[in-house]
Amino acid sequence: MGVHKHDHPHGEGGHHAHAAASGGNGKLAAALLLTLSFAAIEAVAGWWSGSLALLSDAAHMLTDSSALGLAAGAAWLARRPPSTRHSYGLVRAEVLAALLNSLVMLVLIGYIVHEAVDRLGTPREIAGDAVIGVAAIGLAVNLVVAWVLSRGEHTLNSRAALLHVLGDALGSVAAIAAGIVIVTTGWTPIDPLLSLLVAALILVSALRLLREVVHVLMEGVPLHVRLDAVGRDLAALEGVRRVHDLHVWTLSSGIVALSAHLEIRTLADWPAILAAARQTMDTRHGIRHVTLQPEVPAAAPLVRAPHRPPHP
User: Fold this and answer.
1) What average pLDDT does the segment 221-236 reach?
2) Are 91 and 251 in contact (CB under 8 A)?
3) Which CATH class is domain 25-217?
4) DSSP one-letter code for 267
5) 163 versus 21: which is more confidently predicted?
6) Please, are residues 101 and 70 in contact by the beta-carbon 8 Å criterion?
7) Alpha helices in 186-295 (DSSP H)
8) pLDDT, tens digit (0-9, with 9 covering 90-100), for 180-226
9) How many whole angstroms from its chain centre is CA 117?
10) Which residues on adjacent β-strands are paired with residue 293?
């Protein structure tokens, strides 16, 4: 006999999953719109001025902003109710969005590196004054966005967005430095060299994101959860004799699921054990989506005395 208990939480631990639902969604949306708008302007300016540093900075702003935008859109999909076709709902939409974003980032990195190497071999004329002006405006935009985000609700989503904006600001500083060197010395190789630096910054973010996505898709145990500690806490509950078939995985950011079989003495103890297990998993490990199955060892078969024929 198996009894199952399911919990379907909506926790707040996601990297970007609840941006659309948080109280600071308006500020985040405004920040994303401003960043994306200037990324487009900076890309056009980079193409016109011939500056790869500006194009790289625009790519950096675009990828970071698209990561947050995709996550916010996926979070909206994740709030759709489960259906007969998707029993968990669409909570994995955020994971797929993150995978798409990381792959796009790797493609952009490849383009930037290819162009940088080509320009190191064949230097091109660059409008240094335009590079400085546009990059300075970009730095100002990033500082304004950082101020807007810092004034909003301090959630995990807003803090992650703030870190991305600060990374964008470093890209703008690199572009300004390239423009100053070109104007003062005429040494154009500084532009592709600093573009390679920005590409390295994007690569670090892309690889980190891709590693997290693959870990989730492979049903890996969340990095903040220790499987052995979860098993010990379940086994330590009063009335539990043994724990087996224990699995912990991530459905989406902030939504961790657990399933296990608990061997208990009697089914009469199950309601108390289930309540204790749910509370322990929530308070100690932040796991609220819990599926547990109790198992009672089969009683030993009754041994009958051998049949003896009656005495004559």
Assistant:
1) 94
2) yes
3) mainly alpha
4) G
5) 163
6) yes
7) 190-217, 227-235, 270-285
8) 999 999 898 998 898 888 888 878 877 887 888 889 889 999 988 99
9) 32
10) 261
Pair 141, 168: CB distance under 8 Å: no
Residue 94, Cβ density class (10 Å: 0-12 exposed, 13-18 middle, ≥19 buried): buried
Tokens of 246: 């224990």
pLDDT, tens digit (0-9, with 9 covering 90-100), for 34-72: 778 888 888 888 888 888 878 877 877 777 676 667 656
**Residue 268 DSSP one-character state:** G
Q: What is the architecture, at CATH level 2, of domain 227-295?
A: 2-Layer Sandwich (3.30)
Of all residues in the chain, the percent with pLDDT exceeding 90 is 24
Backbone angles phi, psi at 5, to 5 degrees: -125, 125
Residue type, 56: S
> Burial letters for 40-76: b for 16+ Cβ neighbours within 10 Å, e otherwise?
eebbebbeebbbbbbbbbbbbbbbbbbbbbbbbebbe
Q: Where are the alpha helices (DSSP H) in the chain?
A: 25-49, 52-78, 93-121, 128-151, 156-185, 190-217, 227-235, 270-285
Segments making up each domain of the chain, as ranges? 25-217, 227-295
Cα atoms found within 13 Å of the Cα of residue 151, Cβ hemisphere only? 10
Would you call 121 helix, strand, or coil by DSSP? helix
DSSP-based three-state secondary structure for 93? helix
Supply φ then ψ for residue 257, to 5 degrees.
-115, 150
Other CB atoms closer than 10 Å to residue 98's CB: what's the count? Answer: 24
- The CA-based angle 55-207-105, given to 5 degrees, is 30
Q: What are 135's two structure tokens? A: 């990059």
Element housing 257 (H / E)? strand 255-264
